[in-house]
């Protein structure tokens, strides 16, 4: 008798949300304002809609092959060699994404908190923590995300709610934006911040009820997307679009400008950074888990623990490639947009061919 699968529907929604809400939360208002001006919340909504398409395709694929990961059912759909190319692309992309997330974390920490700490130390500490955590099985992976989920959502919602008392609705008008020249680029950049939804490909084979994967993944996407929309609306409402454009990390500035009632805490940036570190960890954990887990599947290994530290030097080396913060964000935007082909176009192609060829895995639900 097969062992019962450990991941519940609630855990899937928590995994999705905590993976998407990550390091990008600090800069997402800037990305949106640059392309849409006062229509920044609209740009976020459009980015969420793009990510809905990708999540829908990935969830449909996983429900069609409920006992296999994308590496495994890719071979059944398009053949071994074409699938190998696609799988290497997925693994390489999430390894790069992990490195860039760690680098961005390091830049924020040495700029805002530990100003005398070398960048390399902060990056390697976070990567090592992710590598150690990745050695756990999928059940522990689900428990960790579920545990941290309320710790992420609660404080951020509180900060946004408190900041709204300083917001001015005129800063958000016109709601459709001032200029649409950079709207498309901005929407694609924002959609790239939701690529953590790809974690569903790893989670579905361990779900107790794979048929509920679509509902759970969409719930996670709605939670994270709604949070991002409110953060951007609050930031632009408080500072205005022109001032927001001059900030490197607008969400952090929003936390600095927010206080608890009766001035119990005059600035909430320290509390926000503590929550943000947790968000970075959960995102980094998921992207590293995808890369390691899919690599083990590609090489037909039963255990992924072999690669948790094997990949670490390469990921760290990639994290040190950007020359400075501006170069890092330029790379992040370019890699994120290219990654949309891997996280949306590739699953879409697999789903289309699977339907045409009538390929389907064994239903275990």
UniProtKB/TrEMBL annotation:
Pfam families: Spore_permease (PF03845). It is a multi-pass membrane protein. The chain crosses the membrane at residues 12-33, 39-61, 81-102, 108-132, 144-164, 184-207, 219-241, 270-292, 304-326, 338-356. The keyword Membrane applies. It is found in: Membrane. InterPro entries: Spore_GerAB. It comes from the Bacteria. Keywords: Germination, Membrane, Transmembrane, Transmembrane helix, Transport. Belongs to the amino acid-polyamine-organocation (APC) superfamily. Spore germination protein (SGP) (TC 2.A.3.9) family. This is Endospore germination permease. It comes from Cohnella hongkongensis. The lineage of its organism: Bacteria, Bacillati, Bacillota, Bacilli, Bacillales.
């Amino acid at each position: 008798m097969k062992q019962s699968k450990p991941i519940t529907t609630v855990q899937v929604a928590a995994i999705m949300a905590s993976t998407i809400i990550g390091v990008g939360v600090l800069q997402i208002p800037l990305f949106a304002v640059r392309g849409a001006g006062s229509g920044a919340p609209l740009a976020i909504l459009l980015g969420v809609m793009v990510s809905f398409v990708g999540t829908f395709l990935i969830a449909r694929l996983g429900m069609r092959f409920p006992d296999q990961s994308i590496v495994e059912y890719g071979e059944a759909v398009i053949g071994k060699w074409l699938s190998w190319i696609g799988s290497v692309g997925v693994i390489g992309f999430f390894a790069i994404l992990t490195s860039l997330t760690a680098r961005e974390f390091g830049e924020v920490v040495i700029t805002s908190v530990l100003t005398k700490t070398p960048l390399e130390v902060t990056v390697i500490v976070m990567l090592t923590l992710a590598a150690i955590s990745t050695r756990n099985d999928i059940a522990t992976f689900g428990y960790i995300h579920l545990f941290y989920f309320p710790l992420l959502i609660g404080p951020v919602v509180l900060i946004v709610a408190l900041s709204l008392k300083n917001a001015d609705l005129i800063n958000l008008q016109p709601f459709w934006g001032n200029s649409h020249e950079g709207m498309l680029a901005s929407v694609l950049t924002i959609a790239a911040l939701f690529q953590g939804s790809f974690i569903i490909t790893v989670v579905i084979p361990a779900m107790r009820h794979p048929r509920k994967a679509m509902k759970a993944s969409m719930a996670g996407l709605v939670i994270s997307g709604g949070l991002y929309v409110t953060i951007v609306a609050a930031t632009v409402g408080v500072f205005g679009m022109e001032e927001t454009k001059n900030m490197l990390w607008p969400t952090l500035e929003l936390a600095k400008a927010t206080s608890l009632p009766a001035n119990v805490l005059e600035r909430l940036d320290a509390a926000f950074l503590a929550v943000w570190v947790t968000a970075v960890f959960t995102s980094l954990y998921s992207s590293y888990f995808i890369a390691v887990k899919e690599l083990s599947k590609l090489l037909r290994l039963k255990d992924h623990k072999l690669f948790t530290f094997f990949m670490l030097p390469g990921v760290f080396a990639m994290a040190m490639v950007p020359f400075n913060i501006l170069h890092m964000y330029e790379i992040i935007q370019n890699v994120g947009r290219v990654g949309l082909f891997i996280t949306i176009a590739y699953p879409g192609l697999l789903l289309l061919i699977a339907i045409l060829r009538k390929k389907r895995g064994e239903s275990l639900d």
